[in-house]
Amino acid sequence: MIVDDEPGVTYTVKHGLESLDSHYTVTCVNNGEACLELLEKNQIPDLILLDIMMPGMNGMVVLEKIKENPSWRHIPIAFLTATSAHNMKERGRILGDDFIQKPIEVDNFLERIKKLIQPNQTN
Predict the structure, then answer these.
(1) 8 Å CB contact between 79 and 100
(2) Which domain holds residue 108?
(3) Gap between the Cα atoms of 2 and 58, Å rounded
(4) Global pTM?
């Protein structure tokens, strides 16, 4: 699942992932509230790519709500954000499972996604 308020980002990442690996089905939502609604409907993804800076509920609040729920806390979360602030990167790495900065470097993006989804497998 991609949670980002920028339609260009969600479109690019969704189509990029699905074209690089046909096993991926990517759901896109444009805010944290929509993410939580899908989770509440038991639409549990293998991974959430979460923007930090969004209007309304920001990514850190969404992460907190996900981690509070025992049914969701196992979902790997990678922050996908344009912020380059050092303290935000460190916080993102500590609280989430990865921190991927926009624009995405395609060379290692798919590998990072695979490691988050299948952490015990090596390629």
Answers:
(1) yes
(2) 1-21+36-46+72-80+95-118
(3) 14
(4) 0.85
The answer to whether residue 1 is domain-embedded is yes
Backbone φ, ψ for residue 119 (5° rounding): -65, -25
Instruction: Assess if residue 85 is contained within a domain.
Output: no
4: in domain: yes
> Model confidence at 122, in pLDDT bands (50, 70, 90)?
very low
Domain count, the chain: 1
Distance CA 57, CA 14 (A): 22
User: What torsion do the CA atoms of 109, 2, 78, 106 make, to the nearest 10 degrees?
Assistant: 10
pLDDT tens for 74-89 read 999 998 877 655 555 5
